[in-house]
Design a protein that fits this description.
Leucine-rich repeat, LRR (right-handed beta-alpha superhelix), globular, seven-stranded mixed β-sheet, about 575 residues, Transferase(Phosphotransferase), domain 1
């Protein structure tokens, strides 16, 4: 009996000691209302930073749930999985307590004024998939502990003041889709980097690559006198074409090879010596875009990778020319297919048109909500939705879209776009936003429904913008079948037609505030396609495999042509912000 009592007393004493030691060790991580280590970690991050824009004002140590805080996202279980503090003028240092957010998958701190070392504790975040600390003033070595992040897909530390060597553990990360260490003060030999795509340009003290394999991916070299001329605009995942190559490929930009033209320039069909087809966009006013601006836009556009976006494969820049190189889309644009005549059956039947709308919505959603900074297209229309060999929608012509910083809700520029597709607020004020693209998408839906014929001026008496008034009238009168493309010969679903028109009317409301986001549009279309039993086209079902195949084919054939400037294209579809 005494022994049992003694054992109980000893156990109780030990438990109390353990609790006291735990409390002592983690006292700074306890909030007054209980233990929430994620709240404590975030508050420690806040204390180490200077928040001039007060973006962290809502962060409260007394809170037991950080999931409602600005810039914080949580899983359904309530764990912090994303911290996106982008372009918010934050300065100070990044607290090592960031390592206590053990479930975080996305950490975005780019384009701030943060300084000091990168905390080695980040290497303990075993679930981290995306880490972007670019555009800050971080200094010191790159922590070797980052090499322990085996789930990491995207690592961007470019445009900082980092020094020392590239850690071998980081170079050996085989799961990385893209690694960007460019424009730092790194030195020593360049190790063989296992990432599918990477850039280390702009590190003038970095030595030669340690293996010939990595030299093919466009890494920086130690020819200091030639670095500025030859490598300043080198982007590792893109190929830099010579102007002469493109002249030959397009038969000296022959008018016979024109695929289309618009406000930004003329697009030519090109053919490399090994018969690989490509599309070459020759920008209309090369002097309008400066070299630095062009480099920035090309770099960002080249990283916008999604199966429903037109992949940028390369570029050409001379003192008088700016050109962008894309894969050739064999089925042209949606507008081309809608205007076809003389076919017994339209190449775009009703089901295919729904799937095109779905694919275009996915591409625009990626630009708006998953790119960082977000990209506004500003000219969404059937002519800018291209079709690959399997008729899957590929959003094109966002090549010179303005990149919108997350600090702003809109951007004011000279109005670019197509009459009849331009949102009223953009036309009147020059202010564009994601909702501008939503308006254009609504018109795109009407183009798919009507075959675009209802958008034509016809005898010149009807203004293009009046199509919306006509649609609203027919919707109220329940006579929507009048709108449907006659080429479909009545082969459409009346319920789906009504839902599509209703969605188009929501997207084209005069006030941008009343329009849905592209994420909401996508949900409606996914429900529409799913509930009706439609299956997406073979190309759509292929998903990333199809996207990878397109990239692989172009990469393989291009590199066979021009070995001395060979490049590696590895398709990657971002799962979240970059």
């Amino acid at each position: 009996m005494e022994n049992n009592c003694v054992k109980k007393l000893l156990f109780g004493f030990c438990f109390v000691c353990f609790c006291m030691s735990l409390a002592t060790a983690s006292d700074s991580l306890l909030s007054p209302k209980g233990v929430n280590f994620e709240v404590a970690a975030l508050m420690s991050v806040k204390r180490e930073m200077k928040d001039e824009m007060s973006v962290m004002d809502g962060w409260d140590i007394n809170s037991v749930d950080p999931c409602t805080w600005n810039m914080v996202s949580c899983s359904t279980e309530g764990f912090v999985i994303s911290l996106a503090m982008v372009s918010t003028d934050l300065s100070g240092m990044l607290s090592p307590s960031i390592g206590n957010l053990s479930h975080i998958r996305t950490l975005l701190l780019q384009n701030n004024l943060l300084s000091g070392p990168i905390p080695a504790a980040i290497g303990t975040l075993s679930e981290l998939q995306t880490l972007d600390l670019s555009g800050n003033q971080f200094s010191g070595d790159i922590p070797s502990s980052l090499g322990f992040l085996t789930h990491l897909s995207y690592l961007r530390l470019n445009r900082n003041k980092l020094s020392g060597q590239i850690p071998k553990l980081v170079a050996d990360l085989i799961g990385l889709s893209f690694l960007d260490l460019s424009f730092n003060n790194l030195s020593g030999p360049t190790p063989k980097i296992q990432a599918k795509g990477y850039s280390v340009t702009g590190n003038s003290f970095l030595g030669n690559p340690s293996s010939p394999d990595s030299a093919q991916i466009g890494v920086g070299v130690s020819k200091p006198t030639n670095v500025q001329q030859d490598y300043e605009f080198d982007i590792s995942h893109l190929k830099r074409f010579s102007f002469r190559e493109l002249q030959i490929a397009t038969s000296n930009f022959s008018s016979k090879n024109i695929l289309g033209q618009g406000g930004y320039g003329v697009v030519y069909k090109g053919c490399l010596p090994n018969r690989t087809m490509m599309a070459v966009k020759r920008l209309r006013d090369p002097n309008f875009t400066g070299e630095v601006q062009f480099q920035t836009e090309v770099e960002m556009i080249g990283l916008a990778l999604h199966r429903n976006l037109l992949r940028l494969y390369g570029f050409c820049m001379t003192p008088n020319e700016r050109l962008l190189i894309y894969p050739f889309m064999p089925n042209g644009s949606v507008a081309d297919r809608l205007r076809e005549t003389g076919r017994e059956k339209p190449s775009l039947d009703w089901d295919r048109r729904l799937c095109i709308a779905l694919g275009a919505a996915r591409g625009l959603l990626y630009l708006h909500e998953q790119c960082n900074p977000k990209i506004i297209h500003r000219d969404v229309k059937a002519a800018n939705i291209l079709l690959d060999a399997s008729y899957e929608a590929v959003v094109g012509d966002f090549g010179l879209a303005k990149l919108l910083d997350r600090r702003e809700s809109h951007v004011t520029t000279a109005v670019r776009g197509t009459v009849g597709h331009i949102a009223p607020e953009y036309l009147s004020t020059g202010q564009s936003s994601e909702k501008t693209d939503v308006f254009g998408f609504g018109i795109l839906l009407l183009e798919l429904i009507t075959g675009q014929k209802a958008l034509d001026a016809g005898n010149g008496q009807v203004q293009k913008g009046m199509i919306l008034d006509l649609v609203r009238t027919l919707h109220e009168e329940k006579r929507l079948e009048v709108l449907v493309d006659r080429d479909l010969k009545g082969c459409f679903d009346a319920i789906e037609l009504e839902q599509c028109v209703e969605l188009a009317l929501q997207c084209t409301q005069s006030s941008p505030i009343l329009r849905p986001k592209m994420s909401d549009v996508l949900k409606i279309l996914e429900g529409l396609v799913g509930q009706s039993g439609h299956t997406e086209t073979e190309g759509s079902q292929g998903g990333t495999n199809l996207f990878e195949a397109r990239a692989h084919d172009f990469s393989r054939t291009c590199s066979n042509v021009h070995q001395e400037s060979s490049f590696i294209i590895e398709a990657m579809q971002l799962s979240g912000p970059r």
